[in-house]
């Protein structure tokens, strides 16, 4: 019989206010840009004004005559030593991998590419001296459109290559043995729907501009960077620069957002390393917002051609996807693989019998594209959720009913999809029902009918997105099979200090997610210590030497698993110590409520702190007991994490002006068990906001010469508070069966779900006007134009 | 160089500055007030917002010399000398109105200024009042809640005559509260 002792309320599941906030709300944050080292110099970077050109003349020496300038150099000066920026995801064996020099040497291939550097005593002097650098360019033909780039006779982005096509990657369920053949499905179909969707180019637009400080004095290379990936970066710096890994320390101090945009080894980081070594003093570089928008990696920019085969009753028989992905001028760290993260998600929550996905990656004279919140999965979810609405219209069913006829029911889990993924858990019926109720779906449909009937110039549209996604990146073997260059494990270390306080070291690297709070909650429960007695260390390869960092909604799904495992190891190590203190056999010790007790004895237990002090003194330990309670764990997930949910959006569209207003938005997400509901809700709010931004507001635009027209926040327009609605966020809870906490990833779900919900609503509002698509972002101009082109009633 | 005198967070600073120096550069690079940050170069993001004689300004959009003789309050000077947080700071913490926190100094200072102008704003007035401050993480919903909570707290603390009247702030489901020291 277990004796139940009084124990504090569990931390996991409570809306703990964040530990991180104390420094962030008082202006005591350690941003990279706030770091000042003795003797530190400042960098400014001269960037190409042309999208494609040969550098015919470049002389940095006039800059050296400017005041306060210590050094100036160009790509040619470092051509032999600068190496190339890495691509860690060569998706095919024959992937075309052009060299990506940090500083352009002979040719520039997109506007904003770095061509020369000034190092000066202060930032203003460095920027001033850029004007003294002499550069002559010979313009080369520019190609911006990815379909033009693929056509015969197109100008080449890389004149030393024979093609602009980087790769072709195919998944076919018939070939993989995971499903049927799409051609057969189409041949037997009563309905075939073909659509082209365009994912516009987006810019992650994290609020903290990228910044890097490098100290290369002595034989140590220390780099502070506003990065999501300090651990990966350390490894890459060793490989790219040849610096022994043990002499490299990378620190991601407080980092102001990333959204995938700081999942990169950047030209600017390498340039700062080159500069610091050249001048023998620490250097700092912080980009301006304009530089950031122009040269930090972009996201999306994909053309999707879909062919959906179905029966007249709405049952889908097969889906074929042809995808063209604009990679930009160079390959990003994981850029070629982003479409692959979507490839396995086009079947979404549905039981499709046949599926084929073909993707071509294309070079153009634009800034490279890479991960942006959701990375591949928003694109897939958008396309399938849009075309399911088209199917509903075609077969004359409510769009929720079409989804219900195709989705995996909750009794069918675990379910192996047409892509070969095994979804571990989910309850699409429950999430959808809850969303329907919160949204008043039936009431809004009735209102829509009335407004359609009355010819209201402001029409009501209802948009649906029943999404799932694969996150918690990722099982290392699966990553290996997809030719990804690294593993997907995560690490955690617990240090039990002599006074019983706990230091937790995590290998994931937060930049706004709230790890310090959530990890403290988990450890408090696992070890029976106070939330306040846990300190979470991260983002410094000296203290947290092992990690795979933060992206792909992986921190809790993978890192949380390692954390729980490490805690269990601590308890196991403490048990023999407790047994010794309790003068009982170790097999008689039980640990619950933060105390080690003799089984069946409610009183007189020993705490972890008692054991910690005992091993610290180590005067009286049993033979063979190591005098520490510290423990590590590295966990490699057995599967992806599959959060899901149903988002419903109601918009009002003014058919006379094209203006779209979101009237209500309901997000019901199932992320399994929740460690901190406040943080989860925050992730949903922010994720939905970014998805709404893609649907309605944001687009990176180049002119015909390859100049970025959206190079400031005047033109690239992340929504303000006045642009966004309140949303209703709720949850259903289907625990992840393989996770010790039952949790699933939440970082990207909102963004993945919301874009199709909004656009489906806009299109739904305009069905009577003959509209079956509005390109994103659905600006008033585009909505109005779609109405004019629709041929419906005016 | 031009001689200027600023009172920043209650301390007097006399400096010679280049006339082209922006107020935010002066605050960060000379005075060491790095709690105030720069997020853009077109005055769109508002991350650099400070109070100048009590009114919010984007410190990237004015020259240091223009602030000569004035009092600047930054995020670092907002809490009371003993460390007690300003109601807006406390509400941002309680309402989870920040994630990465980069926009937060500017957002809080803009909110303080907004509440000075309008002690009882509606949701819409908060949203429009903070239109000049961008946040990429939160979707703003919790920021709006926080500003309205702070407004209530500040009105209550000021003993406003209508403090007894029913609040216009709808009763929000009280999240589980715990004592957290910040």
UniProtKB/TrEMBL annotation, chain A:
PANTHER family: ALDEHYDE OXIDASE 1-RELATED, XANTHINE DEHYDROGENASE
Name of the featured protein: Molybdopterin-dependent oxidoreductase
Stored Pfam families: Ald_Xan_dh_C, MoCoBD_1, MoCoBD_2
Species annotation: Rugosimonospora acidiphila
Keywords carried by this UniProt record: Molybdenum, Oxidoreductase
Signal sequence, renumbered to the chain: none
The keyword Oxidoreductase belongs to this UniProt entry's keyword annotation: yes
Domain Aldehyde oxidase/xanthine dehydrogenase a/b hammerhead: from-to ranges: 26-141
UniProt cross-references to InterPro entries, sorted A to Z: Ald_Oxase/Xan_DH_a/b, Ald_Oxase/Xan_DH_a/b_sf, Ald_Oxase/xanthine_DH-like, AldOxase/xan_DH_MoCoBD1, AldOxase/xan_DH_MoCoBD2, AldOxase/xan_DH_Mopterin-bd_sf
The organism's place on the tree of life at top rank: Bacteria
TrEMBL record, chain B:
Cited InterPro entries: 2Fe-2S-bd, 2Fe-2S-bd_dom_sf, 2Fe-2S_ferredoxin-like_sf, 2Fe-2S_ferredoxin-type, Beta-grasp_dom_sf, Diverse_Oxidoreductases
Residues annotated as domain 2Fe-2S ferredoxin-type: 7-60
Highest taxon in the source lineage: Bacteria
Pfam families reported for this sequence: Fer2, Fer2_2
PANTHER family in the record: OXIDOREDUCTASE WITH IRON-SULFUR SUBUNIT
Domain [2Fe-2S]-binding: 74-148
Annotated spans, Disordered: 155-182
Low complexity compositional bias, start-end: 155-164
Gene3D superfamilies, A to Z: 3.10.20.30, [2Fe-2S]-binding domain
UniProt keyword annotations, A-Z: 2Fe-2S, Iron, Iron-sulfur, Metal-binding, Oxidoreductase
Protein name: (2Fe-2S)-binding protein
């Amino acid at each position: 019989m277990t004796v139940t002792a009084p124990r504090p309320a569990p931390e996991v599941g409570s809306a703990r206010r964040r530990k991180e906030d104390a420094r962030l709300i008082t202006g005591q944050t350690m941003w990279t840009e706030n770091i000042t080292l003795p003797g530190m110099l400042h960098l400014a970077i001269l960037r190409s004004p042309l999208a494609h050109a040969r550098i015919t003349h470049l002389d940095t020496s006039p800059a050296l005559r400017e005041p306060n300038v210590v050094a100036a150099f160009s790509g040619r000066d470092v051509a032999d030593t600068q190496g190339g920026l890495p691509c860690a995801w060569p998706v095919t064996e024959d992937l075309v991998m052009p060299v990506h020099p940090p500083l352009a040497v002979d040719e520039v291939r997109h506007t904003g590419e770095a061509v020369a550097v000034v190092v000066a005593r202060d930032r203003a002097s460095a920027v001033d001296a850029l004007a003294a650098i002499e550069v002559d360019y010979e313009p080369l033909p520019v190609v911006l459109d990815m379909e033009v780039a693929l056509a015969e006779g197109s100008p080449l982005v890389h004149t030393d290559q024979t093609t602009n096509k980087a790769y072709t990657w195919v998944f076919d369920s018939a070939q993989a043995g995971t499903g049927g053949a799409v051609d057969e499905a189409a041949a037997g179909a009563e309905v075939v729907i073909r659509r082209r969707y365009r994912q516009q180019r987006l810019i992650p637009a994290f609020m903290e501009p990228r910044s890097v400080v490098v100290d290369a004095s002595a034989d140590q290379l220390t780099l502070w960077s506003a990065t999501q990936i300090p651990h990966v970066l350390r490894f890459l710096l060793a490989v790219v620069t040849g610096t022994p890994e043990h002499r490299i320390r990378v620190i991601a101090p407080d980092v102001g957002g990333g959204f995938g945009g700081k999942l990169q080894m950047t030209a600017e980081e390498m340039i700062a390393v080159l500069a610091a070594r050249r001048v023998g003093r620490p250097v700092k570089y912080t980009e301006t917002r304009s530089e950031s928008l122009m040269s930090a990696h972009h996201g999306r920019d994909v053309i999707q051609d879909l062919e959906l085969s179905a029966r007249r009753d709405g049952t889908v028989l097969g889906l074929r996807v042809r995808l063209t992905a604009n990679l930009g001028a160079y390959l990003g760290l994981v850029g070629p693989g982003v479409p692959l993260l979507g490839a396995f998600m086009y079947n979404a929550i549905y039981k499709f019998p046949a599926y084929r996905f073909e993707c071509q990656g294309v070079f153009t004279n634009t800034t490279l594209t890479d991960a942006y919140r959701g990375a591949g999965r928003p694109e897939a979810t958008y396309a399938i959720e849009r075309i399911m609405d088209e199917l509903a219209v075609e077969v004359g069913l409510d769009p929720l009913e079409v989804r219900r006829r195709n989705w995996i029911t909750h009794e069918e889990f675990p379910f192996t999809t047409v892509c070969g993924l095994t979804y571990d858990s989910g309850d699409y019926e429950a999430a959808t029902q809850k969303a329907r109720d919160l949204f008043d779906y039936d009431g809004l449909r009735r209102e829509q009918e009335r407004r359609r009937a009355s010819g209201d110039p402001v029409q009501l549209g209802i948009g649906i997105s029943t999404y799932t996604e694969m996150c918690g990146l990722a099982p290392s073997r699966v990553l290996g099979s997809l030719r990804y260059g690294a593993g997907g494990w995560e690490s955690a270390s617990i240090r039990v200090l002599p006074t019983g306080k706990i230091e937790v070291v995590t290998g994931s690297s937060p930049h706004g997610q709230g790890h310090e709070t959530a990890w403290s909650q988990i450890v408090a429960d696992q070890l029976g210590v106070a939330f306040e007695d846990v300190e979470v260390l991260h983002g410094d390869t000296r203290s947290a030497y092992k990690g795979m960092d933060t992206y792909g909604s992986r921190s809790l799904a993978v890192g949380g698993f390692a954390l729980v495992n490490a805690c269990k190891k601590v308890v196991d190590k403490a048990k023999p110590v407790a047994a010794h203190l309790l003068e009982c056999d170790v097999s008689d010790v039980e640990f619950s409520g933060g105390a080690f007790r003799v089984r069946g004895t409610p009183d007189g237990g020993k705490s972890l702190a008692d054991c910690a002090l005992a091993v610290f003194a180590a005067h009286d330990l049993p033979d063979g007991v190591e005098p520490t309670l510290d423990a590590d764990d590295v966990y490699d997930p057995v599967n992806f994490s599959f959060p899901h949910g149903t988002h419903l959006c109601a918009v009002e569209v003014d058919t006379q002006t094209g203006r779209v207003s979101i009237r209500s938005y309901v997000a019901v997400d199932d992320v399994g068990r929740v460690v901190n509901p406040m943080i989860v809700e925050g992730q949903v709010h922010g994720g939905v906001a970014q998805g709404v931004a893609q649907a309605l507001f944001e687009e990176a635009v180049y002119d015909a010469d390859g100049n970025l027209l959206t190079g400031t926040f005047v033109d690239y327009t992340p929504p303000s508070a006045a642009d966004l609605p309140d949303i209703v966020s709720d949850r259903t809870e289907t625990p992840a069966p393989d996770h010790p906490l039952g949790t699933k990833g939440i970082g990207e779900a909102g963004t993945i779900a919301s874009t199709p919900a909004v656009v489906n609503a806009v299109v739904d509002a305009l069905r009577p006007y003959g509209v079956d698509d509005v390109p994103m972002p659905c600006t008033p101009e585009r909505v109005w134009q779609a109405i004019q082109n629709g041929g419906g009633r005016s | 160089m031009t001689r200027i005198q600023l009172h920043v967070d209650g301390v007097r600073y006399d400096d010679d500055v280049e006339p082209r120096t922006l107020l935010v550069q002066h605050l960060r690079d000379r005075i060491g007030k790095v709690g105030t940050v720069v997020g853009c170069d077109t005055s769109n993001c508002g991350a650099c917002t400070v109070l100048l004689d009590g009114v919010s300004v984007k410190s990237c959009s004015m020259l240091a010399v223009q602030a000569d003789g004035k009092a600047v309050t930054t995020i670092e000077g907002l809490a009371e000398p003993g460390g007690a947080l300003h109601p807006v700071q406390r509400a941002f913490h309680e309402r989870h109105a920040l994630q990465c926190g980069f926009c937060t100094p500017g957002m809080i200072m803009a909110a303080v200024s907004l509440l000075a102008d309008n002690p009882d704003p509606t949701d819409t007035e908060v949203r429009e009042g903070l239109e000049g401050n961008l946040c990429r993480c939160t979707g703003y919903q919790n920021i709006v809640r926080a500003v309205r909570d702070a407004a209530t707290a500040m009105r209550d603390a000021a003993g406003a005559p209508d403090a007894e009247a029913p609040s216009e702030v709808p009763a929000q489901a009280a999240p589980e509260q715990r004592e957290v020291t910040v």
